[in-house]
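Students often ask why we bother encoding 3D structure as a string. The short answer is that it lets us treat folding as translation between two languages. Here is a chain of 97 residues written in the first language.
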Amino acid sequence: MQDAKPSYASRISQAEILAFLKATAIKELEVPEATFSRIGLKTPIVEGLQLDSVAQVVLVTAIEEKYDFLFDLEDLERVETVLDLVQLIQKQTQHKT
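And here it is in the second language, the structure alphabet:
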């Protein structure tokens, strides 16, 4: 059973996005919870979560499915930290009504 799509009437909070990223990292990417607990907003996302190219695709796909948008490749190339990713998700979901 899939989670319901969020309402985009208001901006999605950092806490909501981080909770989703944590759940996805633990369940789909098999990142140990202890590893994720050391991740902060300024942590480099690929190195911090130790994501290989396949894991990166899984994460991007999970985000796109959850928040119902497609990333622009140029935007993804600029994502370096967890905060960058959170802000990109917020930006993309703001455009939805």
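Translate back mentally: The chain has a mean pLDDT of 88. Keep this in mind for the problem set.
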